[in-house]
Design brief:
With about 110 residues, this protein is mainly α. The protein contains two helices and two strands, in the order ββαα. β1 and β2 form a beta hairpin. α1 packs antiparallel against α2.
Length: about 110
């Protein structure tokens, strides 16, 4: 059974959950937003007796909402990748410091 979320959560080495984006979610957001809000606009057009006024507005609104959700998702992933890179660099620096310390202790003997 698939989840309603477009992201999967995985555990990082530190135990924190980290999101992974399903690439199809971006096109899913775009299509769903346009169809859903375009359909609502079409229903409002039928109810109000107007012809093609609210349907295009709904499509544009759905597209804007989908782009916002996509941007938000990508920015969260960018932040997580940046934090992971910083953690890796710190871990590498710690290993290098330990190696330098052990080398210095060997030369002191």
């Amino acid at each position: 059974m698939s989840s309603m979320s477009s992201t999967r959560k995985t555990k990082t080495p530190t135990g924190k959950p980290q999101k992974k984006v399903d690439p199809a979610s971006i096109s899913g957001y775009l299509l769903t937003g346009m169809v859903l809000y375009g359909g609502l606009g079409w229903l409002i057009d039928k109810w109000a007796g107007t012809s093609d006024v609210f349907a295009p507005i709904g499509v544009v609104f759905g597209l804007a909402a989908a782009l916002y959700l996509t941007f938000r998702q990508v920015s969260v992933l960018e932040r997580q990748e940046r934090e992971a890179l910083i953690r890796r660099r710190r871990a590498l620096a710690d290993v290098e410091d330990e190696n330098e310390d052990s080398t210095a202790h060997q030369h002191d003997r």
